[in-house]
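so my prof wants the structure for this chain in the tokens format not the other one, which i didnt know existed until like an hour ago. anyway here's the sequence
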Amino acid sequence: MDIRSLVRHARPMRYHLKAPWRADAFSDPAPLTAIAGRGAMSKLSHPLGDVVVRPYRHGGIRRFIISQWFFPSERPAMEMARHLEAYEGEIPTVEPIGWAEMSSWFLGLRRYFFLTRFNSDLVPLAFHLRSSQTHTHLSIQMTHILIRLRELSILHTDLNLNNWQMSGEQLLLIDFDKSKHFTGNDQAYAVCCLSRIARSGLKLGLQSSHQKLFLIVLVRLCRSLNLSPRRILTKIMHQMPSQLWREMRWKLSGGHR
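here's what i got, hopefully its the right format
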């Protein structure tokens, strides 16, 4: 008997929602089309508005073994705290609603879900860059978000281009899973953020459109933080591993860089 069959009989879902949301007002879930590597999501109707339910899942090789079952963790509660702090700090993002868990009888394993307000017109920035040649307004918005996160001492640890979303002309940042309180200096912050954005563009195969946006954001962010763009770029380049090692490390580390 495999693990999937052992955890099939799970206990009912337990919700942890911010006020005034109530779980007993949710409708039955309806599936949403999975795009940009976000996995199988669903939508719940609620009197206060529709809600997106995003399941937590393992990355890399672990995804093929036990993709959505975890040992008990504070991970969703921590994501809620960081995401709510960013939302209330006026970071352009989707509204966080709460999180949910479903426990099994096998080894105490649990499935976790994160809930946000549904936005029907979100488009991943990676898709947008393939068809858009305008970068000025995007670079201004991206720099503003990074500076505001710095002011809040929040480090978003997964600034890949699929976590930057377009809602019309508005740039949003989503998925604060594993974000953390940052106590380093401005230089370390800039290198962490820009390195992740650079790696994402390389992985997705974006060329001139991503490079142009990246360089403009690099200059704008460095000017805002009184840093040398050339020095920051040099540090970023030193952190870029070879293609083979980068992909191997990504798979072995569970999909997180």
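also thought this was worth mentioning. Confidence is low (pLDDT under 50) at residues 1-9.
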